[in-house]
Specification:
heterotrimer, A mainly alpha (541), B alpha+beta (346), C mainly alpha (219), B: 346 residues, alpha+beta, Immunoglobulin-like, Cytochrome Bc1 Complex, Chain D, domain 2, five-stranded mixed β-sheet, 33% helix, 18% strand, C: mainly alpha, Four Helix Bundle (Hemerythrin (Met), subunit A), elongated
Chain lengths: 541, 346, 219
């Protein structure tokens, strides 16, 4: 296949300036988005490699590939890397950075230098964490429970905590930037209720980013102080309270899961209307639901601690609130489904990922209902049931949304089309591999297999084998896009400005867009997803 | 073993648990199926037929949206209520439960029965009788998990947490540590053996007990000099410990605390934390001088000292439930400390 | 005499008003994150204060109330000079702006000097947590927690003061280069917001660490 010659290509953000310095010192939100794609891809495959090694070890009930110490380090590093260095930045810092300004009709974010700084800070945090890894790893679990992490672990806890602490600044900078951008940089006519849902969801995400992350920072700081100076803060032997650590840790880490899923919902809320050619059903409810998730999400952290020593009355409060926070998520699922009803559904890859998301997020979310039920949680907490639950949401949800979003926005970002046939096949492989990996884990959890077990009793063997088989398939599904997307950047068919015939300001610019996004500042005159108003432009009906 | 999980719920709680669990599975399964069917059906039924087609532009339906907000909310409240009810049951031991003390350490379970029998990573109990576990850790946080009985409770250093179960069917049931605790976390496992009464008597007859837990505690009470100050005749420089267990104690800050296991333990390892009103604190600090096993024996002894010396005082049902809250039961202004450390002696 | 400054309108903004309002919003969001940061520490303090009231009151009584009070006055004074600095910027008085920024810096430095003197005195009294810690009375072990939180919280505050000094210094330099006018002095306003925030945090720190044990002084 001969490469498409780049003859008369319009100047765009990619070719406007050349050279490594123009990338490493760029202030263009679009280039920064791509820089982030590079970083998080590296971390995704690193964390994924750890997962693969873990699943290989779990093929047999006894230790065969790894020692228990090595296994303990692997699950810790897998968690740390996937949570902080992949999931949290995945959609916001790539697609969010690229498209928030474009969707609101701005030519950049509010603070471009802060944006670039956030990427460097992120990589610094990642480098320090990888350093901890290379020097021997951490074995505390990504949750760093005390007093094990402060007094008993002999691994590189402080280095890992430092890496995460620094990466947290990147989160805060990003959230701050997005909030200021969304408040102040909207084009004329772009009122709040004319914003695409992608913006609402990222706004809610950004609120959590700025308010929750500092609590993580201070918790890690205190943990590190205790570890380094051996003074009591969380260690009962030194006068501290280990449950206080859990409260503070989860006060951040529960909202963090909404940081991880809201951007996924943001992407789905764009894909489903486009590929159903209908407005997002119940726009106002969905917007309000995003805000409710952000707010109520701050009030439920205790559901991670139902067997940790909470009073029965606290536990009841947290259980009740956890059920409340499930309502807005349910609303979103119904609204996406209703958007498809009587639509004009196209089966392009982004839509396949979106449909997969809806199904898998529903399953993941509903197993959350199990965990919110106090009596039920007693049995399944700290087992593979919880692992399956959050992987359904993070992987079946966020990662699929990320892939769907990358495919959806690929023509806009690169000016090229990816190979549709291969992409659909990959989506199918991912879907099958994912379910085979994680559904057996629900059963394992109910049967009593605890988390973080390097070895296990023989009766859990078969389900673990199934899970590992699924993981290998899933891995293949992830590797394909890496190759065909990179391939398509050079050799893919060229794309016009709006290959999907979507509404939305981002589709009015060229593909790839010019550096300043819009030649003229757009003026917005109507609601989003208005195929009716735009029928002539889009050639519909 | 798996059968115990899927079919033969070996305890009443497990059976109630399974009702709730499988009804949740049914409801959630049906909803998931409905949503999956709906979206797949829509994708097929409304598959784009012509390139330029524009379907009806439905923006919303307030009634429908309110319905699917309120109905799930109601269902969720039902789930909450049922889950909470089950939880209360799980967390409230019956008054006549046999008390077993558990000391967890990296990486084993040490269990002691009132008659002094010690087991490691195993517990033999008769069927049909409730068992209450009073647990502490010597080092990091562990978690006592018996899947067959659907019970789990974190085991913390420096305090006691409790959980209870009643096996109704004989069998050998897995015991797992369910809170990651370091290198051999996955090796910190064992079994609960529930036995028919005859077998249990036979097993008991094998002996091995060194005297009851309370009598061991009594020996320690004298050996460490506690008896020198803590007289039982109502006089003496130190509080009278007769009938202490579960008594409301007024401390110097004006607060009233319930003298439960955690309070008694704290009073031994960190006497200055709560000083009984009307007394001066010159009790030695026993932290690091007594092992958790010894503390458990002492507590068993103190619990055994009723209004008449040597009488076993039954714990009453419906009391402030054990095992939750960072503190022993507290009422009144000011709150006592949880810390249990000593002046530095590095 | 420097030339009158021209307003720099960054590329991403359409109007100077938008630029100023966005920058101000950014600073307020940042301050919200700082509230959450210190909030975690205040939470820990509250919890341990609840657990160990006697020890914490004794720890507080051990603090040097004179130095603490002087520091509070110094810092509040510095907020006053900072407010005057912002006012000078608003009226375009560059000389006065430099003067007030410098005064604020000086007062901030005085605060830090007193703080570190206090730390040194604590060190001499063996109040620094760790193996060498010592505290009179039976509450010693519990009082150590008070000092752990004291050093972390005032230390974090002092770090913020250092950063503030840096910010003020850069404002002075920029002012001397002619960057600020009556029309454009947003960085000075934002520096003011930051400085006032750090001051408010100190007031809370003063209350929880110094004032608690006041009634025990001299006993």
């Amino acid at each position: 296949m001969t490469p498409v010659l780049e003859t008369a290509v319009a100047p765009n953000y990619l070719n406007e300036t050349h050279g490594i310095r123009s990338w490493l010192l760029t202030l263009d939100h679009k280039r920064i988005g791509i820089l982030y794609v590079a970083s998080i891809t590296v971390f995704f495959f690193l964390g994924g490699l750890f997962a693969l090694l873990m699943r290989l070890e779990l093929l047999a009930p006894r230790a065969w590939l790894l020692s228990p110490e090595e296994y303990n380090k692997l699950f810790t590093m897998h968690g740390i890397i996937m949570v902080w260095f992949f999931l949290i930045p995945s959609i916001p810092n790539t697609l969010g950075n690229f498209f928030i300004p474009m969707m609101i009709g701005a030519n950049d974010v509010a603070f471009p230098k802060l944006n670039l700084l956030s990427w460097y800070v992120f990589n610094l945090g990642g480098a320090i964490t990888v350093f901890a890894l290379v020097r021997g790893g951490v074995d505390t679990g990504w949750t760093f429970y005390t007093p094990f992490s402060t007094t008993y672990s002999t691994t590189y806890v402080t280095a890992a905590a430092l890496g995460i602490f620094i990466a947290g600044f990147s989160s805060i900078m990003t959230g701050l930037n997005f909030i200021a951008t969304i408040h102040r940089m909207r084009a004329p006519g772009m009122t709040w209720f004319r914003l695409p849902m992608f913006i609402w969801s990222h706004y809610a995400t950004s609120l959590i980013l700025v308010l929750a992350t500092p609590v993580l920072a201070i918790t890690l700081l205190m943990m590190a102080v205790e570890r380094i100076f051996q003074v009591g803060i969380f260690d009962p032997a030194l006068g501290g309270d280990p449950v206080l650590f859990q409260h503070m840790f989860w006060f951040y880490s529960h909202p963090a899961v909404y940081i991880m899923v809201l951007p996924g919902m943001a992407v789905i809320s764009e894909i489903v209307p486009t590929f159903s050619r209908k407005p997002l059903f119940g726009y106002t409810f969905v917007a309000l639901a995003s805000m409710c998730i952000a707010v109520i999400g701050f009030l439920v952290w205790g559901h991670h601690m139902f067997v940790a020593g909470l009073s029965v009355y606290s536990a009841m409060g947290f259980s009740f609130l956890s059920y409340l926070v499930a309502v807005p998520s349910a609303i979103k699922v119904f609204n996406w489904s209703a958007t498809m009803y009587k639509g004009s559904i196209s089966w392009d890859t982004p839509m396949l990922y979106a449909i997969g998301f809806i199904g898998l997020f529903t399953i993941g979310g509903m197993t959350g209902l199990f965990l919110a039920a106090l009596g039920v949680d007693v049995h399944v907490t700290d087992t593979y049931f919880v692992i399956a639950h959050f992987h359904y949401i993070m992987v079946g949800g966020t990662v699929m949304a990320f892939l769907g979003g990358i495919h959806y926005f690929w023509p806009k970002i690169t000016g090229r089309l990816y190979p549709e046939g291969l992409a659909r096949l990959s989506a199918l492989i991912v879907f099958i591999g994912f379910n085979l990996t994680f559904f057996p884990q629900f059963v394992l959890g109910y049967l009593g297999m605890p988390r973080r077990y390097a070895v296990y009793p023989i009766e859990f063997h078969m389900l673990n084998v199934l899970s590992t088989a699924g993981a290998s398939i899933l891995g293949v599904g992830y590797v394909f896009p890496l190759f065909y997307l990179v391939w398509s950047w050079k050799y893919g068919k060229k794309s016009g400005p709006n290959p999907w015939r979507a509404t939305g300001l981002e589709w009015t610019s060229d593909s790839p867009p010019p550096k300043e996004n819009f030649e003229v500042t757009p003026v917005v005159t109507g609601p989003p997803y208005d195929f009716e108003r735009m029928r002539e432009e889009l050639g519909l009906g | 073993m798996t059968a115990a999980l899927l079919f033969l719920a070996p305890s009443r709680i497990a059976a109630e648990y399974d009702w709730l669990f499988w009804i949740l599975v049914t409801i959630c399964g049906l909803v998931a199926l409905a949503i999956a069917t709906f979206i797949v059906f829509s994708a097929i039924r409304y598959h784009r037929r012509s390139e330029n087609e524009l379907p009806p532009q439905i923006r919303g339906n307030i009634k429908l949206e309110l319905t699917w907000t309120v109905v799930p909310l109601i269902i969720f409240m039902g789930m909450f209520a049922w889950g909470a009810t089950l939880y209360f049951d799980i967390e409230r031991p019956p008054g006549d439960a046999t008390e077993i003390y558990v000391v967890a350490k990296q990486w084993m379970w040490k269990l002691q029965a009132p008659d002094g029998r010690r087991e490691i990573d195993e517990l033999h109990v008769p069927v049909g009788r409730p068992v209450k576990l009073i647990m502490t850790s010597q080092d990091v946080i562990h978690s006592f998990f018996v899947p067959a009985f659907r019970i789990k409770q974190d085991v913390l250093p420096n305090r006691y947490t409790t959980i209870w179960f009643q096996p109704d069917k004989p069998g050998k049931y897995h015991l797992f540590c369910a809170e990651y605790c370091g290198m051999k976390h996955s090796g910190m496992i064992g079994y609960i053996y529930a036995m028919e009464p005859r077998e249990y008597s036979l097993w008991l007859a094998q002996g091995g007990a060194e005297g009851s837990l309370a009598s061991t505690g009594e020996k320690l009470f004298h050996q460490f000099g506690c008896a020198n100050c803590h007289h039982f005749d109502g006089h003496g420089p130190c509080p009278d410990l007769k009938g202490l267990y579960r008594r409301q104690v007024l401390i110097t800050t004006g607060a009233t605390v319930v003298a439960d296991e955690s309070y008694i333990r704290e009073s031994i390892v960190d006497p200055g934390a709560k000083i009984v009103a009307g007394f001066t604190n010159y009790m030695p600090v026993f932290k690091d001088r007594l092992t958790e096993d010894q503390l458990v024996a002492l507590i068993a002894y103190i619990k055994a000292i009723g209004p008449e010396p040597g009488t076993q005082q039954p714990s009453s049902a419906g009391d402030v439930p054990q095992g939750y809250g960072a503190q022993p039961g507290i009422t009144g202004p000011g709150t006592p400390g949880v810390s249990g450390d000593q002046p530095k002696a590095h | 005499m420097a030339e009158p400054a021209t307003l720099i309108l960054r590329e991403q903004f359409r109007t100077p008003v938008q630029q100023r309002e966005t920058a101000t919003l950014g600073m307020w969001i940042f301050l919200a994150t700082e509230v959450m940061l210190f909030g975690g520490l205040f939470l820990a303090f509250t919890v341990y204060r609840m657990y160990n009231p006697a020890a914490f009151i004794q720890g507080s009584a051990d603090m040097n109330i004179m130095l603490g009070a002087i520091n509070t006055a110094v810092l509040i004074g510095s907020s006053f000079t900072m407010a005057l600095a912002v006012h000078s910027a608003e009226t375009g008085d560059r000389k006065l702006l430099t003067a007030f920024l410098t005064s604020t810096m000086v007062l901030g430095a005085v605060f830090l000097a007193i703080k570190f003197t206090e730390y040194y005195l604590h060190y001499l009294d063996r109040r620094v947590p760790g193996p060498g810690f010592s505290f009179p009375g039976p509450e010693a072990s519990r009082a150590e927690m008070f000092f752990v939180l004291y050093f972390i919280m005032t230390g974090l505050h002092a770090l913020h003061m250092f950063i503030g000094e840096g910010i003020l210094f850069s404002m002075i330099l920029r002012n001397r280069a002619g960057s600020f006018t009556a029309e454009y002095h947003t960085p000075v306003e934002l520096a003011g917001l930051y400085w006032h925030f750090v001051d408010v945090i100190w007031v809370f720190l003063f209350a929880i660490f110094y004032i608690e044990g006041l009634h025990l002084h001299g006993k």
